[in-house]
């Protein structure tokens, strides 16, 4: 199950974006895993903090 907590990103064959967020419970002491999402007409941008990776998810035609 810890693989799920490590996070990940993929786009499936239908163009759907899948972003698994890093789990805070996997963070060592004095570290974090959080972020915020900015929403645009053609994309989502996840701005990660500390152990959470930032990701840009662009919507295709």
From TrEMBL:
<dbReference type="GO" id="GO:0008663">
    <property type="term" value="F:2',3'-cyclic-nucleotide 2'-phosphodiesterase activity"/>
</dbReference>
<protein>
    <submittedName>
        <fullName>Manganese-dependent ADP-ribose/CDP-alcohol diphosphatase</fullName>
    </submittedName>
</protein>
<dbReference type="GO" id="GO:0047631">
    <property type="term" value="F:ADP-ribose diphosphatase activity"/>
</dbReference>
<dbReference type="InterPro" id="IPR029052">
    <property type="entry name" value="Metallo-depent_PP-like"/>
</dbReference>
<dbReference type="GO" id="GO:0047734">
    <property type="term" value="F:CDP-glycerol diphosphatase activity"/>
</dbReference>
<dbReference type="GO" id="GO:0030145">
    <property type="term" value="F:manganese ion binding"/>
</dbReference>
